[in-house]
Amino acid sequence: MTQLSRSWRRGGAFITVAAVSALGVGLSAVPASAHTPTWTVSCSEVSLDLTAYGNSDKNTVTVTVDGKDLLPTTSFRNDFHKKLELPEHTSELKLHLSVKAADGDQFSKEDDKVAPVCEDTPPPSSEAPAPEPSDADTPPPEETPEPAPSASAPQAEEPSDSASEAVPSSAPSPAGGDLPETGGSSATPLIAGAAAVVLVAGAGIMWAARKRRSPQS
Fold first, then answer.
1. Where are the domains of the chain?
2. How many CB atoms lie within 10 A of CB 108?
């Protein structure tokens, strides 16, 4: 009986040790299994929610868009929550999430997602905009030709001789010029008297010449 009781005691102790060991392993595995890397992607942003990664600053997270960093490699302790705004895009964006757990690569995460195009973003136009004309390319304004003079248009009449005669002369007028002209001049009587004297003298010379000729004949 004594030996049997001892064997039962040894067996119970062994079972107890095994149970405690299994419980310890289970408890140590609980935090590792609680790692929760959650992330959502919309057309305009990325939302990150990483929880239960343990109190270690060796946990890191990185997010890239088409191979470029949207979130550079960042260290975090236990939890990490952040929203990242995506750049404007007219085509789908390829995103990659990389989470490195401090307690082993088996708890790390590598995942890819696609960000769709927002509905209010206009599609790119296939037509190139027309270049704006510069001052150098602008043609000069056309000159409007002046109308030729019409044949029916009245020509300016040249001033007639009568018009030029009507212009008063700048020479001073003779004495008595203030009186109106009546067709004669003030010198007319003198000229007539001189002519009469010449005629009388001529007649006297002819009479004397005839008288001289008569005795000789």
1. 34-119
2. 16
Amino acid at the residue 115: A
Task: Judge whether 37 and 50 are in contact, CB under 8 Å.
Answer: yes
For residue 3, the model assigns a pLDDT of: 52
Q: What is the per-residue DSSP string for 105-169? A: GGG-EEEEEEEPPPTTSPPPPSSPPPPPPPTTTSPPPPPPPPPPPPTTSPPPPPPPHHHHHTSPP
Question: For the sheet containing 109-115, what is the strand order?
Answer: 68-76, 59-65, 93-100, 109-115
Q: Which of 123, 120, 100, 119 is nearest to 110 (CA)?
A: 100
The lowest-confidence range among 74-78, 88-92, 124-128 is 124-128
Which amino acid is it at 158?
A: E
- pLDDT of amino acid 194: 77
Structure tokens at 141: 């304004």
Nearest one of 73, 64, 74, 81 to 115, comparing CA atoms: 64
What gap in Å lies between CA 83 and CA 45, rounded to an integer? 7
Task: Please give the residue that has the higher pLDDT: either 50 or 123.
Answer: 50
Q: Which CATH number fits domain 34-119: 3.20.20, 2.60.40, 3.90.550, 2.40.50?
A: 2.60.40
- Confidence (pLDDT) at 38: 95
pLDDT band of 117, cuts 50, 70, 90:
very high
